[in-house]
Design brief:
Rossmann fold, 14 helices, 15 strands, six-stranded parallel sheet, five-stranded parallel sheet, alpha/beta
């Protein structure tokens, strides 16, 4: 079995040599049920993953952590090299795909979180081998589809983080589907500036993305107060969280991607408070986004949500388009 996983997880650098340690193993744990299922069926598995953007990172800390937490013998599961080490991977090169495909008999994609990429190990391996989706991959598609296939109402959509350009298709789509759209994090700065609010040195986009039209929409909810640091907004304020709590309480579906504060600069308080409110609500809750998931794991509340996605960019693309290159490749 060639099993594509996404073990591109944060590694804490070692102080005195060595390869460091895995800081967050959420994605590794999510792949274990598929790996154990395949082993039970008699398969020998070659795991294919990338680590880092350029392929130079060593997989040693990943391997060490994987065998330690899974207790799986190395004769059952082996690792291919960091797949981005090979230029053909990201170039989606046919010759590299053919070569890679000769290593196995069957291909399984258990890397939903990187399935928005048109790379060899995502879209071309299914061309040469019998192929299937992993167990968690199927869960991702099934649960995230709840947000746009007959969603429950009242429906609250919470969107945070930055990168306005990547989230614009999502904002447009969910203004139509949701009953309430709360914009937080750095994304909110653009809206607040367009409203005439003083935002100091806070991060804003270069383009306006037609924000004025959204400001007229009654579904839009923006922060009414914030926490400032060095002249910039770093977090959502307490009054906003209280207002959001009332909407969370009456919602039947809550979809959330991205933190609503500048997580890395100490602006995680509001995100944590709202995570607890959503976790304790009676609503169906679908949550994702890198920093948001890291907080959920630190708070040990993953099992209180209906579904926590492994995807960042892949989650955004799937919610906006209803499919991904990796999904299309499996359906051929």
């Amino acid at each position: 079995m060639l099993l594509r996983v996404d073990f591109n997880v944060p590694i804490k650098p070692a102080r005195r040599g060595g390869n460091g340690k895995v800081e967050d193993d959420f994605r590794i744990k999510k792949a274990l049920p598929t790996i154990k299922f395949l082993i039970k069926k008699g398969a020998k598995i070659i795991l294919i993953t990338h680590l880092g953007k350029d392929g130079t990172a060593s997989l040693e800390p990943i391997k060490k952590h994987f065998y330690a937490i899974s207790k799986i013998a190395e004769d059952k599961v082996t690792f291919f090299e960091n797949v981005r080490k090979f230029p053909g991977e990201m170039k989606n090169d046919l010759a590299f795909a053919k070569k890679l495909s000769t290593m196995g008999d069957i291909y399984v994609n258990e890397a939903f979180s990187v399935s928005h990429r048109k790379h060899v190990s995502i879209v071309l391996l299914p061309k040469y081998l019998p192929h299937f989706a992993g167990l968690d991959f199927e869960k991702e598609v099934r649960n995230l589809s709840h947000a746009f296939e007959k969603p429950k109402h009242p429906f609250l959509f919470i969107l945070g983080g930055a990168k306005f350009s990547t989230k614009m298709p999502l904002i447009k789509k969910y203004f139509k589907l949701a009953d309430y759209v709360f914009i937080g994090g750095a994304l909110a700065n653009d809206f607040l500036k367009a409203k005439g609010c003083k935002i100091g040195k806070s991060l804003v986009s270069d383009n306006n993305y037609g924000i004025l039209e959204f400001l007229k929409n009654k579904k839009l909810i923006l922060p009414t107060d914030f926490v400032m640091k060095d002249g910039a907004i770093i977090d959502t304020g307490e009054e906003t969280v209280k207002n959001l709590a009332l909407i969370i309480k009456k919602s039947k579906l809550i979809l959330w991607n991205g933190p609503i504060g500048k997580y890395e600069d100490g602006g995680a308080k509001a995100t944590k408070e709202v995570l607890r409110l959503v976790a304790n609500s009676k609503a169906e809750s679908i949550v994702g986004g890198g920093d948001t998931v890291v907080l959920i794991n630190k708070m040990k509340i993953e099992n209180k949500f209906s579904f926590v996605s492994t995807g960042g960019g892949a989650m955004l693309d799937f919610l906006a388009k209803g499919t991904l290159p990796g999904i299309k490749a499996l359906r051929r």
